[in-house]
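Side project, low priority. Logging it here so it doesn't get lost.
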Amino acid sequence: MFISQYPASIDALTHAITICDAIHDEPGRAKALLRLGSAQWISGDCSAAVDTLTRALRVCGEIGDRPGQAIARNQLSAAHRLLGHYPQAVQDADRAEVVYREIGDRNGQAVALSQRGVALRLTGDHKAAVVALEQALRISRELGAQYEMATALTHLGAVWRLTGNHPAASSALSEAIQIRRAIGDPRGQAAALTQLAALWHATGDHPEATNALDEALQIHQRIDDRHGRATTLNIHGRRLLDRGNPKLARTQHRTALRLAREIRAPLEEADALAGCGRCAIMTGDTPAGLADLANALTTYQRIGATADARAITDLLASYADNHS
């Protein structure tokens, strides 16, 4: 399903919940709430998803539906992560993983471990992220669970890129893309392509980076994935700035900023502000650049993105030292 098609699904599920309420069908209500919450966070309405999934968690608890409770926790982890609530995302993933383990659902356990890993990566705790993601990968390989395997590989590739383990990152991301293409998952394919583009840029393979970014953006546009598009545009902007084109880079970051604000994605908004700030300073618009960097720092600190916050703090301190 394209992301643009989710509003129709959301309307149908909302109607289904109303019917379940009227006839007191608690299992039906729980199932519809879980599906509605999933559709909401995937389509970008994460605040509504948190409310819906919290209701689903309560209903599942009342009727003793433990698998439903685990699903609700897992989906809540994803929604909280996209809202920048990283500690809550880790906590929800941990609770989901415990329930999955207790009921013997190893596939669900792998999903929850991947959720934990990506949230930890965003806080800058790369060591703990790798532990969780390697556990998720091991379980999904044992089960032959292709989707979960590709998810763990994509996030492992991202962590290994950030920590400088480029060969491992390249291997993981290449395998993730191959799996995503084989199972027909364009959204996941684009996410892995974006990470691979960032890796190729870091290692100096600029033509391959350009090709990967172009392919990712085409996919995001086709399936109307604004969150993925914002992420990819920010990476594209950083690449253009590094290659000496701050004006075009600023355009990419401004578009990413607009998209991030539309879907209320704080990490992508902060990344875009940081990019705009760097570009503005490079083009001589220093007051605007410093203001953008300060706003990015505030958001990074608020959502607990400690590594990003530290990088901006160091950048602002360096600028102050050079102009004192």
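Brief comment: The chain has a mean pLDDT of 92.
Revisit when time allows.
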